[in-house]
Amino acid sequence: MRIRALIKRIALQLFRDKRTLALLFVAPLLILTLMHFLFTSNEVDSMLGVEGVSNEMLEQWKSNGLDVVTFPINSDVKKSILEHDLDGYLVVKGPTMTLTLENTDPSRSKGLRAKVQQALVGNLNGENSSEIKTNFVYGSEETTFFDVLSPILVGFFVFFFVFLISGIGLLRERMTGTLDRLLSTPIQRWEIVLGYLIGYGLFAIIQTIIVVTYSVNVLDMILVGSFWHVLVVNVLIALVALSLGILLSSFASSEFQMIQFIPLVIVPQVFFTGIIPVDGMPEWLQALSRLMPISYGSDALKSIMYKGYGLSDVISSLMVLIGFAILFILLNIVALKKHRKN
Amino acid sequence: MPILHVDNVSKSYGKHQILTNVNLTAETGQILGLIGPSGSGKTTLIKLIMGMDVPTTGVVEVLSKKVPNLDILRQIGYMAQSDALYQDLTGLENLSFFASMFLMNKSERKDRIAYVTRIVQLENAIQMKVSTYSGGMKRRLSLAIALIQNPEILILDEPTVGIDPELRKSIWQELSRLKTEEHKTIVVTTHVMDEADKCDMLTMIREGKVITTGTPHALKVEYEVSNLEEVFLKAEGVHRAH
């Protein structure tokens, strides 16, 4: 009953605060859209090096908008790519074709390969059934940057905005004295924490639904696994963000100090989301990454959205997230003792 | 049997001593005034009475029960020094929210809200957002919230600070009505001496120590002066001499 009143009040306050609502729901979409275009823009023509290719085919590719440079037979492929700043190199030896892609920019490599294939199919009228063998100078076939990045981004934005808004929500309650006023009623401390979690949690769920739906349907973000599984993981991420946000807000005495937690708490987490491969880090950094809630969240999201895993495959990550949430919730209940001893 | 009993209470935060051996008693149906300059420890004392904080030594008893005690909070209506209100909600939503904290059912809640709204004369503004209220309206809404659960004890921390004389008068009229008609016990802190005259009992505090206590009349007689301001000054002098 008290919890319900608390939830209702939080919902009412948020609904009246249109700017904050917009921050919660629209800002992630704007940033995701921006990043989508940043990482998929490949308007610059690709440069392709070739050897053993007929003149007809060369003409064909040129008319398809490819810059083609011809090399003598049996050149050193990798060296040629690096020296001439090529995006790819095609070797035709009888029926076998080998395409080597430079692949610093996965989306560009993907585009180049599609163009080469397109031209070949058009030229050979399907009579040639041999596949093009593809090698990569950097990375591998699976790497498409936005595809890898996008599950991480979804999790990160949920974490970031929920952290900020719930933290400042409780902070404002402390600063205006309404928290003390609230604690002068017989409400239990755990009821306040739970009310806050559910109240803001509802908005976090709506946010997740909007962000994931938009990313998948509008931005064509890759989603191999189930939408519902993504939702479950994001709700857990939001729960950790919520409980961490309201916990840290008790160590801030103004909104400005709350903002100061962003470089301290949020930014380092970004580095451990998998954008930079954790395996290559020194051991102490790897240990540090295990302390970052978001690394578990983005791991689970990547597995579901990109690799098509189910919830049972990422259960250990989910358990760690739940563990973090429970820890922060308990600390919150203790932290409220600062305001009322029982 | 006193309804409120503060027995030899001291409170310190680290090395900083806020209250020293404070004794205080209030009987049912009394207005008890806590008089003292700002920084004298009044608000800390109130926090201890509410059970928001615990004394370093000594005991606080409310309604014969030792605080802190969550159930006792149901019997205490509290009005803080600053208006602790949800600005983006309406007056009605604020009242309704705090009513829910006392687990009132719907009809009970409706009756109490209507009643307290009428008492503080906010009937016309109750649907408006608190952010549009004047300072006086906010104070009145705070008082209404303190009354919402029909508590036996009212604790008001500087209820009239920063409001105009007319409103101050009407709040004091309301307090004496609550005392005589509803037999509420009221603890009020103030540093305005003419308000102190309206209390039944006074306890004067300075630097965390009780310097004198008694009815306004008795104090004036004891210190052979005509107003409470002089009582405070004289009592302070006597206290220093000790």
Automatic annotation (TrEMBL), chain A:
<dbReference type="InterPro" id="IPR013525">
    <property type="entry name" value="ABC2_TM"/>
</dbReference>
<dbReference type="Pfam" id="PF12698">
    <property type="entry name" value="ABC2_membrane_3"/>
</dbReference>
<keyword id="KW-1003">Cell membrane</keyword>
<keyword id="KW-0472">Membrane</keyword>
<feature type="transmembrane region" description="Helical">
    <location>
        <begin position="226"/>
        <end position="249"/>
    </location>
</feature>
<feature type="transmembrane region" description="Helical">
    <location>
        <begin position="314"/>
        <end position="336"/>
    </location>
</feature>
<feature type="transmembrane region" description="Helical">
    <location>
        <begin position="261"/>
        <end position="278"/>
    </location>
</feature>
<feature type="transmembrane region" description="Helical">
    <location>
        <begin position="148"/>
        <end position="171"/>
    </location>
</feature>
<feature type="domain" description="ABC transmembrane type-2">
    <location>
        <begin position="114"/>
        <end position="339"/>
    </location>
</feature>
<dbReference type="InterPro" id="IPR047817">
    <property type="entry name" value="ABC2_TM_bact-type"/>
</dbReference>
<comment type="similarity">
    <text>Belongs to the ABC-2 integral membrane protein family.</text>
</comment>
<feature type="transmembrane region" description="Helical">
    <location>
        <begin position="21"/>
        <end position="39"/>
    </location>
</feature>
<dbReference type="GO" id="GO:0005886">
    <property type="term" value="C:plasma membrane"/>
</dbReference>
<keyword id="KW-0813">Transport</keyword>
<dbReference type="InterPro" id="IPR051449">
    <property type="entry name" value="ABC-2_transporter_component"/>
</dbReference>
<keyword id="KW-1133">Transmembrane helix</keyword>
<dbReference type="GO" id="GO:0140359">
    <property type="term" value="F:ABC-type transporter activity"/>
</dbReference>
<feature type="transmembrane region" description="Helical">
    <location>
        <begin position="192"/>
        <end position="214"/>
    </location>
</feature>
<protein>
    <submittedName>
        <fullName>ABC transporter permease</fullName>
    </submittedName>
</protein>
<keyword id="KW-0812">Transmembrane</keyword>
From TrEMBL, chain B:
<feature type="domain" description="ABC transporter">
    <location>
        <begin position="4"/>
        <end position="232"/>
    </location>
</feature>
<keyword id="KW-0067">ATP-binding</keyword>
<dbReference type="Pfam" id="PF00005">
    <property type="entry name" value="ABC_tran"/>
</dbReference>
<dbReference type="GO" id="GO:0016887">
    <property type="term" value="F:ATP hydrolysis activity"/>
</dbReference>
<dbReference type="InterPro" id="IPR003593">
    <property type="entry name" value="AAA+_ATPase"/>
</dbReference>
<protein>
    <submittedName>
        <fullName>ABC transporter ATP-binding protein</fullName>
    </submittedName>
</protein>
<dbReference type="InterPro" id="IPR003439">
    <property type="entry name" value="ABC_transporter-like_ATP-bd"/>
</dbReference>
<dbReference type="InterPro" id="IPR027417">
    <property type="entry name" value="P-loop_NTPase"/>
</dbReference>
<dbReference type="GO" id="GO:0005524">
    <property type="term" value="F:ATP binding"/>
</dbReference>
<keyword id="KW-0547">Nucleotide-binding</keyword>
<dbReference type="InterPro" id="IPR017871">
    <property type="entry name" value="ABC_transporter-like_CS"/>
</dbReference>
